[in-house]
Each structure stands twice: as C-alpha cells, then as structure tokens.
Amino acid sequence: MRLTDKETKEKIGRLTRRDFDEDEIYTFPVTLCHNDIDRDGERFSEEALAEMAELFIGKTGIFDHAPSAVNQMARIYDTEVVTDDSRTTKLGTPYQYLKGYAYMVRTAENADTITLIDGGILKEVSVSCSASRRTCSVCGAADMACGHVKGEVYDGKHCHTVLSGITDAYEWSFVAVPAQVGAGVMKQYKGGTTMEDFTPITTQEAFTAAAQPLIEAAVTEAVKQYEGYLSPEAHQKALDEQAAAHKTTLLAALRTKAAMQAGLPVELADRLTGETEEALCKDAEKLAALTKSAHGSYHFSAENGEADGVSAAFYKKNPKLARKEN
Ligand SMILES: [Zn+2]
Predict the structure, then answer these.
(1) Model confidence at 198: pLDDT above 70
(2) Which residues pair with 172 in a beta bridge?
(3) Which domain holds residue 103?
(4) Whether residue 173 is found in the same domain as residue 262
C-alpha cells in the first residue's frame, strides 16, 4: 500500500459525507491509462498522464455489468503516475501509467463485485476524458492535418497521434470482458474541439450553409429507411380496401342474421337492403310479412318460383326452421 492507513482514511474522508470504519470501506488500485500507443494509433503524452492524475481524483467509476448500478459505484481518492521499469512502450520509451486508488463502501449488493476485483477478474478499465490537442508524432501538426499516416514510419519516426492538453476527466468504468485481460486499457477520446476553435454562426447564410448538408443527409437517410414502403396515398387506399372488405363481410353476416330472425330462408338474405342491423331487420320483417300475407306461410314456396334446391337442402338440414306445409 502506497499510503499509510491514516492517509488513506483522510483522502477518502474528503470524498465521503461521514467517517467510515475501515471494514466498511473496500479499496483497490486501477490502471486508468498509459503512455503506450493504443489500438487506435494514439497515445497520451506524459504531460497528459500528469494532467489526468489531477482530474481523476473524486471521479466515479461504474460497473457496466452490475445489475444495481447505484450500489456498485467506486470513486478515485488518489492517483499517481507510475513508471514500470519492467517494460517499455512500443517506441522503446519508459512505460508509464496512471494508477488510480479507488474505494467502495461495502454493501450486500457489491459483495460479488468485490470478489471479482480481488480475484483479478475485473481489471480492465475504460476512461472518458477530453483532450484538446491531437498532434502528429512525426511533425507535430495539429489534428493530423499533415497527411502523415498512422502506423507508418517516416525517417525512423513512428507515426501516431499524441493526445495532450487534457481538459476534463469524466468517469471510468470496468469493462466486463475478462477474456481481454492484458489487451490494455481502453480509452475514449472526446473531441478535440475547444471553445477557442469554435466559430459561432451569426448570419442566416452561414446557418443555411452549415445546416443544409445535415438536413439533406437526414432526408436521404429517412428516404432510404422507408424504401419499399407504401406511399401515404397507397397506404390509405390499402386501409380503405381493407375497411370496405370488412364492411362487406359484416353486412353479409347481418343480412343472414336478420333473415333468420324474421324466419326467412337464408338464401333470401342477399335480397335484404340496409346498411345497419336495424334497417336490415326491418326490411327482413317487411319481406316476411309480405310472404306471410301472400301465402299464410313464413316462407316462399316453390310455387311462386322463389324456392329452389338450395332452400330445400337448407330445410332438410334445419328441420326446426322448416316451412309449414300449406
Ligand atoms: Zn505529421
């Protein structure tokens, strides 16, 4: 341990609202970042590590994998830039890394997390910070505007981006990918634009010039997204057709029902007129009354040509509805 317990307690005490007993607090070291070239062909300058050492104190760490994030938070209470004499960077320079000392208040919820840290399973950390300068390692050009290509070697100089001028450190989080142990610390680079570089838009023309490409891109994107979809008109037509088909089916059912209720043979249902159940029932009753008065029967008879083989079959199947024979 780098600090005596008293020092540790004091540093943690600056960040907590009350004093904790030693057994209530769990402390552990994390490697936040280093000065070696990472997978993106970028590296933090030694000055950047020192800047981050200041900025990360008090910053919260989260555990992406943890179900209860609230109870799974840790904070950095101390940092130091460490030189690892046992290794060098890809450039052959001394390997330096920013070591953070974090604490957690022990709870029932984070007991498993603490076990994972103790067991060395949780060790990869991802950090978020703002670097205001991104310069070419070969010529020092800002934002790699020189055309030098990362990964290439120019006159014995390896080309990569040097990140420096750290303006803020936001948070750090454990990456739940134990399989990547040794893969190195991941970092996020958040923009190189500082307020000094920012030119405010003051005229309508400038605004249009700036916004137009964005609008066009958004429209193109939206059009692409809905390729193959119906036009609003075609969609409405399809909806109308569906509604019309539904209405036709419904009316057919209502006509049959009205005919049955009025004691008419179902094959006469098609003759009923009306757009509502009530109208259809009225029409069916009217028709039934006519047939009754004409024949003293609820049904048409074969004599006046209204009945046919279909109705005969219907009555055979539905003897309860069978006509009264005259
Ligand atoms: Zn360059």
Answers:
(1) no
(2) 61, 127
(3) 5-192
(4) no
Looking at the domain assignment, is residue 163 inside a domain? yes
Cα-to-chain-centroid distance, residue 67: 18
* Percent of the chain whose pLDDT exceeds 70: 75
Same-domain check for residues 187 and 263: no
pLDDT band at 139 (very low <50, low <70, confident <90, very high): very high
Measured in angstroms, how far is the CA atom of residue 140 from the centroid of ligand 1?
6
| Residue 163 alpha carbon to ligand 1 centre in Å | 14
For 83, the 3-state DSSP assignment is strand
How far is 173 from 153, CA to CA, in rounded Å? 34
- Residues 199 and 197: their CA atoms lie apart, in Å, by 6
* Residues facing 104 on adjacent strands: 26
Of the candidates 238, 237, 272, the one whose C-alpha atom is nearest the C-alpha of residue 252 is 272
Rg of the Cα atoms in the chain: 41
> How far is the centre of ligand 1, averaged over its atoms, from the C-alpha of 170 (Å)?
29
pTM above 0.90, yes or no: no
Distance (angstroms) between ligand 1 centre and the Cα of 146 equals 5
Q: Locate 174 and state its tokens.
A: 């454990």
> How far, in Å, from the CA of 38 to the mean position of ligand 1?
18
- Identify whether 203 is part of a domain: no
| pLDDT confidence of residue 190 | 46
How many domains does the chain divide into?
2
- Positive or negative: CA dihedral 196, 198, 201, 205: positive
Q: Cα(143) to centroid of ligand 1, in Å? A: 9
Let me know whether 182 and 81 are in one domain: yes
